Every structure is written in C-alpha cells, then in structure tokens.
Protein 1
Amino acid sequence: MWNILTRVLAATTLTVLMFAVRQQEQTKADLNFNGYLWDCSPSYCALKDPINVLFDVNGTLSNTLNEVRTHLGWSSTSGANLKFVDHGQLEDPQAQYASGCTLCSRYHARYNQGNDNGGPGWGIWTMAPVHYEIVTPCGHVTTTFDGARNYVKNKFANSGHHPTGFYWKGNTQASQQCDGSWVAGDGYFAYIDIL
Amino acid sequence: MQHRARVTLRRTVVAGLVAIAVASLALIAAVNFGRARSPFPEPPAGKPILHVQATRAEPGRTTELEAWVNLSTGEGKVIEHAAGGGLQRVELVQDGEYLLYLADAAHVVRWHNLDPNSPLRGRLLDELMGVRLAVEEGRAQIIGSGTDGGRQTVRVRFTTAEGSAVVATLDAENGLIMRAESSQGQQREVVDITYHTIEYLAPEQVPPDLAAVPIPAGASTEEYWDRALNTQALNLSYDVYVANLGSPPLATFRRVSNSSGVTTDRVYVIYRTASGEVQVISGSGPDQPGQMPGDQAPGVVEVAGTRWHVETGPGGVQGSARLGKTVVTITAPDMELFRRAASTLRLCRP
C-alpha cells in the first residue's frame, strides 16, 4: 500500500515539476534577441561574442550596472562599438564594464537593455556578452566566453541575493579573434535575477 | 685572341668577386643593422629564461605577478595573485600547448596541437615584452629616455589596434614595462609595474615543477585542438561533416566539461570565401532553438533531400539539421552559399 502511495506521490510530483519547468521555459522562450554581438560595416556584419549573461526580473541597465559594480567590482571602460540585435534592430552598447585596465588581461562585457518587458518569466532584462581577454599586438583577444560567464554567475549566486540559472540559446558559433584564433561558447546563457 | 680571352675571364672573375663581396657586406650590414635597431641588450649567453616578480598597480586593482619566460622559445609560465590574496590566473606555454587557468572562475582553457604559427605560442612574450617587441618591429616609436628609481628608462609611444594612445616607460636594460599611460576619448588609465626580481636563468635553474598548475578537481575545462581534421583520436559519439566550397578548411575541435563533469563537444570546420566565412559545425546536439537569430521565425529549406531549419540575421543565414547521430549547423553569409555548403556536405574521414 505504502509502495503504491509513494509511487503515485512521486509520479505526481514529477508531473507537476515538469509542467512548471515547461511553463517557465515557454514563457522564457518569448524573449527575442539575437544570440551574438556583430561587428558591422555598411555592407557586412561579422559575428563576434555570444551573449551569455542576462540580468532579468528587474534588470534595468541602471540596476544591472549597480549590481555589477557591487558584486564584481568592475568599472566603466571603453571598447569597440560592436552591435546588439534586439527585435531585429541593430543597437549600440549602452555601457561597457571590465575588471581591469585597457592594457591588462581582464574580464569585460558590453551591456544593452532589452526593448520590451519579457513577461512573467523574464521581466525587465539587460543582456551582456561576457568574456575574458588577453592583450596581444593586434588588440584584445578573447580566450574564453564560458569561463567568464561562469565567473559572473557564481559571483552573483554566491552573494545569496540573486537566483541564477542556465538557459539554452544555441549560440555556439565560433568567432575569430584578431590574432586568427577561434573561440566559441557552449550555447547557454546564465540568467541572474535582479530582485 | 688568347690575351683578350684571358682579360675577359679576369674581368668576369673580378666582377663576380666584387658582386659577392658587396652582397656579403649588404647581408652583414642588414643583419647587424636589424639587431642594432633594438635598443635593448640581449640576455646573457646560456641564460635565455627571464624570471621576474612584480607588483602591478592599476586603477582599482593591484596584482602580484611572477613569470618565467624563455625569450628564445616563448615557453614558460605566468602566475597572477590578487595583492595579498588568492591565485587569480596561471598561463602556461609548453610543448605546443597553451593553458589558461582562471582561478577565480575555476575554469581552465587548454589549446592542444598548436599550429606552428599560432600566436598563442608567443603569448607570454607578449605579456612581458609586448611593448619591446613593438619597438623592435617598428610599431612603437621611442620618444625619449630618462631614469626612474635609479634605472635607465626608454619612453615609447604607440597606438593600440583598438585606438588607445599609449605612452609607456620601459626599463632600458631589458625592455620590461615599468609604466603605461593609455587614453581613449575622455578615459585615461595609468598602470605602474614595480619589479622586485629581474634575473636571467639557465634552463636547469628553473623550478622542476614549473609546468605544474594547481587546478582543483571541480574546475570546468574548455579544450581546443588546432588542425582537428588531422587528429585521429577524437573518439566522437557523432560524425564530422565537411563541405566542398573550393577552399581548404580550417578546423577546430572544442570540448567543454562543466564542474558537474558533463561534457559537450563540437567540431568547427571553417571556410573562407569571397563573400565571407562559412562554418560547418558538427555535434551531438541539442538542436538549435527557434528564437534565433533575430526576429524572424525559422523556416524550413530542403537541400538535397535534407530538411534544414533556417533563420536569417544580420550576419547571414544559419541552419541546422539532424543527419543520423549528428546535429549539423551551417552558417553562411547568404542563402546561396548556405545551399552550396548544404548540398556538398560529406562525411569527413581523416
């Protein structure tokens, strides 16, 4: 008898959990941004960084940058004017923050707030392609996207104030660096709830 | 007649000898002039390994660096600690491999089977000697000299590839960077590097465990293999596909293991064409999602009997299809090239 009850309970729990996950993923799938940054000339856009971090729920640009300063200690910096694509529109970065100086190996990200409210699954969101870069004669060269994303996610998760997770975006294309090397992300972005 | 022939022969021999002498002098002058252009002395004979310990102060961050770099081969190791704190970064170049360990991210990046021309082979030289190399290669100009803390210095100016104007102070004895001021628009940064140890070592003087890197068991790893199509032992759970686009492919194999031990890998075969780059990515999935790239909903395009889920974005076309046990993704600058790549796909057999 107990055995049957336990099985029924387990099956019900599993069904409810799967339904909840499915519901959440369906809601989250509504977000509509391109998975990469682009280096655009008038005639052609070359693929660059995969977007691998998303600050959501109350992720205005201002809130996001406040949290980035608080939890990561990063400061404002400059960099190439690569383009985001939000709802099909090319957009400039609204801010750039890094962990170190221009001539140093460092974590670096560009930020752009989404053009709409992402609904109950996402809320207000800001996207960021985060990477770790080294300095070479041709300029900054990214050595990892995934490692930098994991670093940012873990710093926020360890603060105890920000629920985080991974979401499949599929942006696995490799981007060529100025020194000729190719680097790719694993296709997932980390979401960090700004509450 | 014989006399004229002898004179002609003698003139020819003399002219030949003069030509050889002039060519030799020109060669010697070129070599010496080339060397003389470097204002920095060579390391002592038999001691090609530069060992430094330094403190680097930049706005908002101070780090401690220790490096051993073979100035002849570029091999060696750089270790970076937070000031008075924990390990932050280790980089190692050795035996055709490059390793970057980001301790604060618990993440390792490894490049195997580096191409002989891979810039990663010179990565540590760039870190320590990048500005000196720029002077020697004519990418930076010497604009003055002086002293700093009792050491002779050289002042150098250059512009980075990203447009920052930099004025750097180098140690005249060795070319190490002591100070760099960079500016771009309104932003200005100053980095000061104070060296506590500068010494040249023979190979037998470096620590025997130099190649050891303290990577914890739970670290995630990200590995790349140059020249992956020539690698026999990839041992994949899926097939690798290549296209025929009339140019030789460049291939990179990428494998990622997260901290839970879950491993994913993909083989990237990349082609350069007149219209832009084409990537053929083989992996075991998951499939590409529906919402990217850009706004447009995915469409289905049939090429040579295969249905491809295709989307367009600012960089062109991206499509995915499952071929047996492999998920193949093709990215191309336009639909014509996408179709060409898709219609010429074949299994790669190394």
Note: Chain A has one domain: 31-194.
Protein 2
Amino acid sequence: MFGYNNKVLIIDVSSKSWEWEDLAEDVVRNFIGGSGLGAYLLYKHCPTGVDPLSHANPLIFCASPLVGSRLTTTSKFAVVSKSPQTGFIGDSLSSSSIALSIKGVGADAVVITGASKEWVSLVVDKTGVKFNDGSNLLGTTTSVTERSLTDTLGRGYDTACIGPAGENLVRFASISNDGGRQAGRTGNGAVMGSKKIKAISFKGHTKVPSFDEKALSNIRIDLNHKSLGAATEKYRTLGTMANLSVFERLKILPTGNFRNQSNTDFQNISGEAIHAEEKVSTSHCANCTIGCEKLVTIPNSGSKKVRLEYQSLFAMGPLVGISDRETILKSSKFCDEAGMDTISAGSTCAWFMECMQKGLIPESWLKLLPKYDNEEDFFAQLLTSIAERSGIGDILAEGSARVSEEIGLGSDEFAMHVKGLEMPGYEPRSLKTMALGFAITPRGACHNRTSGYEADLSGSVDRFGVDNRRSEVAVSGEDFTAVLDSLVWCKFLRKAFDDFYSDSAEAYNLMTGLDITPAELKVCGERINNLKKLFNIREGWRRCDDTLPHRILNEPLPDGVMPGVVLSQEELDTMVEGYYVCRGWTKDGLIPSSKMCELGLDSLLVN
Amino acid sequence: MAINLTVELFGNSRVITGQKLINLWFSKSEVDISDVIQELGQRFPMLDGKVLDSSTKSLLSSYALNLNGVGFKDAAQIELADGDSILILPSQAGG
C-alpha cells in the first residue's frame, strides 16, 4: 500500500530489543491510523486487567496515512495506552515534526512494552533502536530535555519526552514534543515514566510515497486556501483563548470548581485583553497553514513565552478562582515544563481548595501543606508539589477521583471528573449535548471526542433542553471525530471541508491507492468507537461509569442567563439511554454480538 | 417609539474596533438585524470584509449572533425588542 509503511515497530524496553511487525491491509482499512489504529493495537497488545503503571501496559505512538502528505494540519499523531487515570482507553493527540519522523523511521506505529530497570532515552533511526542512558536527564523540564537531546544527537532528531511529573508518576502527566506541544490528557506521561523512558527521539530516513502525488497536490492547494477562510478565523486571530470572554458572557465558563458563584471579573484574562496588552506571537505546527498557537510573553519573566490556549487559561484561572494574569501564564508554563495536563492539575487543585474551605482535609494532611502568602502563591506551590510529589502533592498527584475517595466526607460529590478524567472548561448544565458527550466518551470527561458543544453553541439544538436529538448528534459527532483523529486532520480544519467524508475519502485514496468510499469511512468511525468501548468493557466498564459528577446532577446553576437551570439524573439517563439506542447497543450499554459482526470486529480482533 | 439596543463584540471584532459594548438607538419601532449591521458598518467601516458585509447587511460566516446571551439564532429569526443585547461572536466553537 502507498501512504503506509505497512510496519509496526515493537520495542521491548525490558529486554532492550525490538522487532518489526507487518501491518495488514485489512487492519488499516478498518482502523485507518492515529487514534483508530492505536485503539486496535492497544486491544491487541494490552493484556486484560493490567495495572496501567505496570510494565505490561503498552505505550503506543501512532502516525497516520496522511502524515507526510503535506496536506495542511496532517502532521499529527496519537499516543495511546491504558490510562492510569481512568483504567480505560487513554488516547491523546499531538502534532508537528515528530509525526513526520515517526513515519520516517519506517513505522506506522511504535508499540513500547516492558519496563526498563534504569532510566533510558530511546533513539530510533535508520540504524535501529538505541537504549541510551537517560539518568543524566532526570529532573529536567520538558524543554531542557528536548534541547539537550537535540544538542547531543544532532539535527534531524525529533523528541517526545516527559518532565518531572512523568518521572514521578503523576497520574495526569503528559508527553511533550516539538517545543512544548503536549499529548496532554489521560496520563500517558505517567505510563512512559513507569517504563523509565525519559525520552524517545526519532530521525526519519525514508519517505512514504503517495499513490497520486499530482492529484494530491491539487487538494493541497485547495485545502490551504480553505484553511485560511472563515472556518478558521478565530483560531488564526486570537486562538482558542477567544473562548474565555464568550463563555463568561454565556455563563458556560466554569468557575470555582464548577460552583459558578464567583463574582470575579475574568475580562482581564480574556483572549482579547491578552492580545491587546501582552506580547503575543503566532506559531504553526509542521505543515499547518492555520497557526492557532499563540505564544504569550510572560510578564516579569525575562522573555519566557507560554503556548496558551483556552483550556489552560480556564484550568489555571477561573476553575481555581484566580484572575491574576501573570499567575495564570506562569502556572500554565509550569505545567508544560513539568509535563502535566493543565485541566487535570487545575481541577484537582480546585477540588482540594474547596475541601480546605469546607474543613474536610484530614488533620494528618494539614502538616503537609506548603507555606504560602496568598491564594495565587498557594496554587503555584500546589502545582510544584504535585510535579515533585512532595508534601501534599504526593497525594494530589493521584488526581481528584482517587483522592476524594480516600478522604470521603462527601468530597467525592464535588470531584469534577468522569471515569477519573477531570472535566474541561464547558459548563454541562447549560450545554446539554456537551453533558451527554462528557458522560459517554470512552476516555472520560472529554470535550473533543463528541464536540457536543458545537450543536449547543450553533443553535441547532436548545442548549438548555433535553430531547432525543442529542443522542444522534453525539453519535454522529463521535464517529466524525474518530475519523478525523485517525486520518489525522486537525479539529480546527473541520469546518473547512465541503463534505468531510467525501473530501477525506478522496485524500485518503489518493495517498494510499485504496478505494474506500465516504460511506465506508463513516463506518470506520463507528467501528473505532465500538472498539474503544469494547476495550473499556473488557477492562471493567459498568453502566454507572457513563455519568456526571454529583454536583452537576444535583446543584442548579446559581446565576447567569438562566439561573436555576439543572441537569437531573433522569434527564441524563434519558440522553444516555438514547445514545445506546442510536449506537445499536443494549439498554445497559453493552455491544451485542450482532453489532460486532456488522462492524467486522468479531473477526478483526481474533488475531 | 424608539428602540435602544446594545451590541456586544467578541473575538476579533472587539480587537478591530477596540470596543466591547456599543449602544445603538433607532428612532423607529421595528428594527431587524440588518439595520443593526448597517449601523455598525457605518460607525466602524473597518469591520467591513472582516466581520460583516455591508453590501448585504449581514455577518460573515466566521461570526454568529446570539440574543441576550441565551439562544443562538439566524438573523432572520431574531425579533428585536427595546433593551435587547445582541452578541456578535466567533462562529467556531472549539478549543
């Protein structure tokens, strides 16, 4: 096949050995690449019931057929493992040059199994896999690690690494690449740390040929043009931080651990204010025309810059009730350098701060608290202690779900997570389609996998109401996203297509020489989502896991454009059960054998 | 009867104009969105081609309308009343 290397590189860090495995055509036809192929490889390589932080949990890097096509936004890859936060599938996307290098070493995916006894820094190039000593890099931040390896290895190597948080097995540690881009969610950095892999560097030496380069070139020109149009205007101008002022006005900006009772004015940290008052520059991923990344120079820090986007702005600010811009920028930068997911870090701190306000902290833990001058200082010190696993941070590094279970005293009722993954910055009580998306997505509270906010914020549904259409919207959004994340296109390009499935099938076929139809591609999305669910069922998923935090289901929104709006358990159940019906699953959310056969999962998973 | 309206600008529309809120006053009893867009275009010509199309009196597709922070509606569906707030915000919801 064109477009693929047709190979998976399997690395065993226990024995310091590697081998190449063939990637069959029927696998890529059914699971494409990126997060879809990653889900397939996880199902295949992850033994049932393993501890996510044990040697047996595979860590998988997946490129995709469009990597190397030079089509805009396609230099992306997925990182997949069993999540140490949820115990279910953990998949996360990142982007830029390293995607090209992964494919350039001759692999469509790299599966890392086992665990090293000593810290290693892996190097993959045309000579094979080297298991270099990684101990000299211990304790270094993500940017220092990356720079150090560039200096040592020379030009052409691209590195993915963990920071101190990953080394210390913080359950929400991220993996960093290409100067601070993050595979941020679900704790893949902790999985990498559990294998004692500080970094993995790739240097490509081959280029995968496309089936029809000339025709692909025409698509490239067309998409480049569309990517600079109205469909991406927000991302190109202010970036996603433009969300903050809009969300505050619509009262969908969660504040104070989703209590939404804050009287704080967050206009000071709006995207518009930051652009007007700070030095902001734009950065692009490799082969991307959009340039959504906004690098903000942090005041009073020399010339340090932070790659700022809405979710970090939210999690380091309103979520913890902080509106001081400098604190937020520094905290966001700290998380990137320590290699921690800002959403889970912020949410765990927000939960802990509420526990303190309510006097729920056990006596024995109080002596573990850092000394601090004010709320901003306290938050900064909490983040540091988590990354270092020192003092109270050693406890909080387990995430809000686990720690709230340990404390008890009702604190689990305001631990804002689903399946163990903390919630991003969308208020589900007044975004009902998003609420359903949070509840049912296999990786936990995730806004990206259904993009339910899109329906709520476009007027195609009543964002305050509950009706049967939500289920269809969630299914269709989830399948769409599975294809998007498997080819892989950037989400910010999604509105630029004339017809997503037709345009994607055309690009895929020109790259690979296959003859997949738009309808078949759509079924791939359904198949991938069923596979993710199947993995979760195998790992112990229960119907009660598809839910939302107690606070969301029991506390009405206190103010805003619709004060008193609620999302009841009954409303959520109606939407979730409707979703199962739309998926063709049983009323308990299980996948019937007829659906498995229909999607070919019964035979595809045999081998 | 006159109508007072507030237009709230978000995203690049706020950056371009340097304005968060704009108060509009119409000396007639029935006002629709095209009247609002026309007035905005006259006051802030720099919005033309970037946020709105003054020739069609409509927003560009990169922007959406919201009435009073509640519902998202197409321009034709919006019935304006005295005291209403019209939000002009980016139509791309993600991030």
Note: The interface with chain A takes residues 8, 10-12, 14-15, 60-62, 64, 66, 68-74, 87, 89-95 of chain B (CB under 8 Å).
